[in-house]
Amino acid sequence: MFRTKFNYIFFAIIFLGGMVYSQDFTGEYVIHTESGVVTLTLQVDRQGLYQGALQGAGNSFDLEGMVQDGFLTGRVGEQGVIFQAQLSGNSLTLRMVETDGAGNPIAATAQTFVFQRRSGSPGNEKPQEKPQDRQIVINGTALNPAQIEEIRKMYGVEPKPGNYWYDARSGLYGVMGYPAFGFMLPGHKFGTLDSQASRGNTGVFVNGRELPLNEYTVWSYIVGNWIQPGRYWLDGNGNAGYEGSPIPVINLYAAAQQNAYRGQGSGGDNFWSTRFSAGNSNANNTQGYVSVPGYGPVGYGF
């Protein structure tokens, strides 16, 4: 399996840098509206996963998200609403927007609220760190020093503490409980991938992991039709097939280029893009890369 420098950059940003938390959003926040008081409560676990509730006007919605680049981003309830929160002192700006069936934001539904941290609510202080808080957990097992050194030598930097899942056959990885974030090299021995590592709910299993709805939507777009529930495999070269049969039925990198916008660049390259992905290749398509949102760039032919 070959990879380009794009993969290592993406890996470093998400896996090695994505678990750094510059602010603590934990606390209780309030805002006064025409319908009454709305409260927002947030708590964070040791792995950086925020959970809470948005309550007001007789309604209550669960929230869940993680901090990336200073923003708390996640979902509200189960109805396809996503949010982004930014903290400035004791003021928290919350932006929410509904999404369509493909997971794309519907701009007309966007709403912005500015909450104030309730007096006496936990501030920016962090709980005293314990030794176990520094663990790097992949597939439910904390990495030992030799495994951490293996990652450092291969990718040039140590991973940040956190709770991750990893698919050794394809190289896909993500934060436990979430869809795929990107590609690592396949073949690392980081334990057994749990079928519910991404809290899937579609009946579509890839290398034993059930896909969640938003990831399933991207995969279906690439394939060209809605994937039927079942069990499939994916290797590090983008080949995919039915579990139990070694014969691939599709290559996802090649499929992503179909029905795409193409622009002829200099030097014989062939940039292309679709609604969900983009890529480039040389004149005879023997070398190139494909970049899919949520996965990152993946090279081939190098």
Number of helical regions: 4
- The CATH homologous superfamily of one domain corresponds to Avidin-like
β content, as a range? 35-45%
- Oligomeric state of this protein: single chain
Task: Please name the CATH topology of one domain.
Answer: Lipocalin
Largest sheet properties: 8 strands, antiparallel, barrel
Distance between the termini: 9 Å
The stretches of 5 or more residues where confidence is low (pLDDT under 50) are 1-22, 261-268, 273-277, 292-298
Task: Explain how this protein is built.
The protein has 302 residues and is mostly beta strands. The protein has a domain at 27-117: Avidin-like (Lipocalin, Beta Barrel), CATH 2.40.128. 13% of the residues lie in helices and 38% in strands. It contains 4 helices and 23 strands. It has helices at residues 5-16, 145-155, 213-223, 252-256; strands at 27-33, 36-44, 50-56, 59-68, 71-76, 81-88, 91-98, 111-117, 136-138, 141-142, 162-166, 172-175, 182-183, 204-206, 209-210, 230-234, 239-242, 250-251, 261-264, 270-273, 278-281, 288-292, 296-300. It has an 8-stranded antiparallel beta barrel with strand order 1-2-3-4-5-6-7-8. It is globular. The N and C termini lie close together (9 Å).
